[in-house]
Design a protein that fits this description.
about 250 residues, 10 strands, 7 helices, alpha/beta, Leucine-rich repeat, LRR (right-handed beta-alpha superhelix), 10-stranded parallel β-sheet
Amino acid sequence: MVWPSLKNLDLGPVDKLSNEHLKALDDLQFSFVMSGNSGLSVESLNLGRTQQITAEGLAHLAWLCNLQRLTLMECGNLTAIKVAHLTSLTQLQYLSLRGCVKIKNKWFSSLNTLSGLRHLDLSCCKQIIDKGLAPLAGGLSRLRHLNLSWCDRLTNVGLKRLRTLSLLEHLSLRGVRQIADVGVRHLGELSELQCLRVESCWGITDTGLNHLTQLLGLRYLGMAGCEGVSTEGIARLRKRLPKAVIVY
């Protein structure tokens, strides 16, 4: 039987895909198990840009106990993420909620149950605020990649809460225009950081660059559109971080 051996399932973007279709997959899994088969072993699921999926539909993903990668990018009607829908996804390493603009800040705390996450994309999640980052930073200690680009309600306070992500290697804060030098100081404590993107963060100045000199493992720094930074400041930083490619 072919279906139980399926590893990658790409259902996006499908305009008419709804919660009922996810329920049908749930029912299919049940029928496999009841007939003596091992059931579906999907490891990667893409539901990106499916506009009819809601929080209730995610409940039907609980059977995906082998799921490692889940893409919910730009699911326009997804307004909540409930803990009960996520607790069974213990193998999940990659989660994209990019552009899910309707998810309220309070629901981001549910993600801290996914302790195995390595890659989290929350870019363009317009509802997330500093308070929403606290439980994430506390529960996702294995995180390597974090994308918070264009989450424009975040401030320096939020960056302070990221300090506990000691294994973080890639961090994107493009377009987070409320952060300034005092926030960059906290980024200097992320000693494993290899890639940092702060393009169009207008509040960063040469003073903030001084904090980045601690990031000796940095290999890429994106600073295009950082209007508060001078060419002289960039030149000094390049001398301190000779192994880093700095795009300004």
